[in-house]
């Protein structure tokens, strides 16, 4: 069992650097906090190291014991955390399946995490995010997925290429849009479908909307505005596989 | 037009105190940030004062011009805000209507705000929150409602009393629950309905579940866990008024 007590230790500095996207990308590593996410990461085979300030919490000898000050430096949580896992980034798979969620520029990490969690709940096969969507390995994204990110492939792709390729394979691609759109009732469920949800302020890019086979809107009165994670939940529920 | 330049000014101190629930409750006042929320508050007739560090943004003479340092002290936002409104708390109405959302201990301000926004989108008549639900006037709640809190009555009530009273009036009260529950398909829509959603970790209190007429769950495979705002969105969409 390794012990580290210095805040200046090179490993501590490297782990702390994973709070920044740039360093996560460079090393291909990210941190998860708390027992539940560490277990999920271990099950997914990507857990490298467990860090704790309480040796009693370590399940085997392959852990690193640090001081509470080091835990505090590594944690992004307000309340104190006693287990942090260092993980290798999940390998990207290829886009596949009969229910695909596509996110075009979602900016809020909580929304991204919640959408991934919902996609798993309704048995979607994969999630595709555009290049300008918020980072999957942002601590708030990870927390909002509640571990679901380890249960579904999430790929960062060029959406034009992906949607064009899906259409060639016979996947019906549907963009959400309040204008010139059909209601969900008017678009029956079919064998293979992909749904594009957009940025919190701007929605789906007009060029992506034009590329898609259909535009759908959620029937509602009045306020005419739903949070993107709520809209995604209603759409994924409505078009879920049986 | 009043001008304030000192961070020690009594008004500045009082406004800044509204960042705490205790002081919001004492004075019956709260702050909103940004043009959109200020306009909504004005339309709702509860806007008292507009504070800005840019006199050009004031639409009439009834505003207070302050320094950027004072704006920074008053704002809860990370990025800089140039308009802050001081509002009187909204007067609580009585519980009424044919579609009522009831929240039993929701803790995350973002979830509360999103649920209120969704309730307005699907023409719900009012929202009832339990005594232990997070504060409506929390800045994150206000931001997540996107102004919807000014379009629907939100009441803080004892849920036992409220549900019992609603049932006497013939409102069908339905609690969400993963166990011993019916699917949405098994509970047809009826004239007057109230839906109870629970705390992020524990769900609806068992005693409240027992009190309700039905328990409902959202059909899903696999992960068996949805964010409460997403679950609420699916339920409100499914049982919306025509």
Mean pLDDT of chain A: 94
The coarse overall form of chain A would be elongated
Succession of helices and strands of chain A: EHHEHEEHEEHEHEHEEEHEH
- Sheet-strand content of chain A, in percent, reads 15-25%
- Spatial arrangement of strands, main beta sheet of chain A: 8-7-6-11-9-12-10
Name the quaternary structure. Answer: homodimer
The Cα radius of gyration of chain A reads: 20 Å
Major sheet summary line of chain A: 7 strands, parallel
The number of E-state strands of chain A comes to: 12
- Structural class by SSE content of chain A: alpha/beta
Most extensive interface, residues per chain?
A: A-B, 30 and 30 residues
Q: Point out poorly predicted stretches of chain A.
A: none
Give an overview of the whole structure.
The structure is a homodimer of 242-residue chains. Chain A is elongated and about 60 Å long. In chain A, strand 7 (126-130), helix 6 (139-145) and strand 8 (154-157) form a beta-alpha-beta unit. The longest helix of chain A is centred in the middle third of the chain and has 13 residues, at 109-121. The mean pLDDT of chain A is 94. In chain A, helix 5 packs parallel to helix 6 (139-145) and helix 5 runs parallel beside helix 9. In chain A, strands 8-7-6-11-9-12-10 form a seven-stranded parallel sheet, with helices on both faces. In chain A, strands 1-4-3-5-2 form a five-stranded mixed sheet. Chain A is 32% helix and 23% strand. Chain A has 242 residues and is α/β, with parallel strands linked by helices. Chain A binds chain B through residues 110, 114, 117-118, 120-123, 144, 146, 148, 151, 218-227, 229-234, 237, 240, and chain B through 110, 114, 117-118, 120-123, 144, 146, 148, 151, 218-227, 229-234, 237, 240.
């Amino acid at each position: 069992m390794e012990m580290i007590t210095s805040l200046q230790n090179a490993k501590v500095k490297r782990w702390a650097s994973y709070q920044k996207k740039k360093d996560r990308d460079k090393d291909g590593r990210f941190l998860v906090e708390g027992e539940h996410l560490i277990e999920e990461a271990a099950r997914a085979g990507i857990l490298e190291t467990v860090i704790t300030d309480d040796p009693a919490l370590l399940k085997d000898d392959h852990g690193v014991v640090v001081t509470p000050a080091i835990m505090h430096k590594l944690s992004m949580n307000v309340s104190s955390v006693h287990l942090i896992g260092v993980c290798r980034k999940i390998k990207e798979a290829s886009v596949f399946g009969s229910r695909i969620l596509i996110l075009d520029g979602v900016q809020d990490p909580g929304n991204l995490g919640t959408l991934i969690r919902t996609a798993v709940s309704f048995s979607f096969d994969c999630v595709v995010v555009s290049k300008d969507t918020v980072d999957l390995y942002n601590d708030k994204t990870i927390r909002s997925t509640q571990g679901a990110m380890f249960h579904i492939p999430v790929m960062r792709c060029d959406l034009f290429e992906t949607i064009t390729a899906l259409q060639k394979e016979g996947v019906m691609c549907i963009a959400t849009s309040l204008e010139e759109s059909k209601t969900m009732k008017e678009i029956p469920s079919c064998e293979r479908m992909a749904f594009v949800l957009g940025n919190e302020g701007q929605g789906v890019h007009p060029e992506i909307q034009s590329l898609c086979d259909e535009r759908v809107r959620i029937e509602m009165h009045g306020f005419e505005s739903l949070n993107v994670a709520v809209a995604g939940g209603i759409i994924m529920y409505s078009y879920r596989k049986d």
